[in-house]
Each structure stands twice: as C-alpha cells, then as structure tokens.
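A quick aside before the break. I want you to see a complete sequence-to-structure record at least once, exactly as it would be stored in a machine-readable document. Don't worry about memorizing anything.
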Amino acid sequence: MVSLRLSPRIFRIWGPHFMRILCIASALIFLTLSPVHGQPEKQTTEDSDPLTLEEKRIVALLRNKLSDLEAREEEVSLREKELKILHREVEDKLKQMRELRQDLEQTLGEKRRAKKAQVKELSGIYENMNAARAAAAMLSMDRELAIGILSNMRRKLAGEVLDQMPGEDAAEISRDYSNMGGGEPPP
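That is the input. The structure line, written in tokens, reads:
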C-alpha cells in the first residue's frame, strides 16, 4: 500500500488533481474487486483478466501520476528544509549586522564627543590668545575646525577674532558657520 504524505502547500497546488485521481483509482479498484450490485459474482479463471485494456492504462497512468506526486512532494519538502536553513542563516547575519551597526554607531558617537571635547579645549586656548594671532592661526587651519573653535568661544572674543581676519575670509567663515548649523564640530 502506498502511503500518502502531503504537505499543505502540495495539497493546495495538487489537491484538486490528486483528489480526482484518487476518486478514479478508488472507483476502478471498487469496480474490479467487488461484484456489481444485484448480479452474481463472475468466476474468473487464470487466463481471463478482470481489467480491460483501457482500465489497465488508466491504472498505470494513475500509478505514474501518484509516483510523480510523491517525487514532487519529496522535492518540495527538501526545498522547504533548505529554505528554512537559509532563512535561519539570513536572520543570524541580520542580527550580527545590527549588532555591528550598533557598535559602529556607539564608536562614532564616542569619537564625535571626543572631537567636540578637543575643539572645546582648543577654543579655551584660543580665547586666551591675542585676537590677531588667533585669527592668523585660524586662517591657516582646516575651515571646519576653525568654525568649531569660533563656535565654542565667547561671542565677544569670536567677534574680535573675526574682526582681525581679512574681509573675504571672515565672510566665508561666517557663511560656512551659518550653513553648518551653528558650529557643530566636524565628525
């Protein structure tokens, strides 16, 4: 006897066809094994075959279809197992990537805070300098660093430093300062 194990997915796809095949096979088996209702049972000899040629063809076709369905079910079952494994691997990789991203964001945050602290410390140093010397030094450094230092200085001292710079440079630094949103030091 053939055991039928169908997954729900296979049954949704092949269910209607399988049910037809099963009904036909059941009817053929019933017709060949049981006597017709109301008629006496026919005696068969070894030479006579209870199935006609057409019935044999249908039974063979049904057996082939059944074996095809079983093979497909096995194939789908294997693919489902592979997909579950791959899904689990993808979930693990996503989890690792999320953890790495959190670590990276934390490291970048720490780096920004350290940079901000350094810029603030530099601002304190530049506040104690002569405004002309501070302006000359800021013109020779990276523009973003100069803006960060100016943004952390007291306003009066920052104004005096800008006043000591040539007009074009002071205007560019002021414009860049306003575009940066008020002196966030560069990352």
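Two observations worth writing down. The first helix runs from residue 8 to 33. The radius of gyration is 43 Å. We'll return to this after the break.
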